[in-house]
Amino acid sequence: MKNRIAVLARTDLKVALRDGEQLLLTIALPILFLVFFSLVDILPTGGDEPVDYLAPSIIALALMSSSFVRLAISLGFDLSFGAIKRLAVTPLRVGEFLAAKGITSVVLFAGQFIVLAGVAVALGWRPAPSPAFAAVMVLGLAAFIGLAFVITGVVDGLAALAAANALYVVLLLLSGIVFTLNEFPGWLQSIVRLLPSTALAELSRATLNGGSGPSWAWGSLIVWAIAAPLIGARMFRWHTPAKA
Questions:
Q1: CA separation for the pair 197, 211 (Å, rounded)
Q2: What is the DSSP letter of 214?
């Protein structure tokens, strides 16, 4: 079983590293956002230095891009072209497939984090991470990897690309990643606090500055980290309904 997971994860990682569009999404764009908005002070950052506010937010954004958007698009393409369907006739189990995809996302995010943290430090960021930061990243990865599988379970094939990108933009704008929660109207804040991206951004900022973060964000992220993978695993199919 371990060999099957390792082989699939290694193959998936090689494909991801050779995909220019995925590298643009997962590495180039987060670096561009970090550098541009750190040097051009145009975002409301609640009185913090731009890089101090942006670095944890961009790290949260990078996690979303690698574990959610990249994975959902990859699964959508593989489903559409029958690549995943062919795996159904092998000894590979659903749990092993999900584990391999999760390992790939974790490895990619680790690379993103190293690069982005290095760029942020060069821009003047001086983090003071608490031990809780690791837990935030684990919960965030679980939540968004699960959401990627939910998307491909709900939307057929290549339509997952459009659905994942659309949801990504919504989560980016309505999450506190770009704008602080105080910038939203009161009625909208209640809704925004329920989003996994909001909890991830809030906890990322808090734990990278030595804090623990608000209890509502922990509760929200834990629920998403448990519910999304369970729902995603239950909805997973080896093929699209149209090709059944």
A1: 18
A2: -
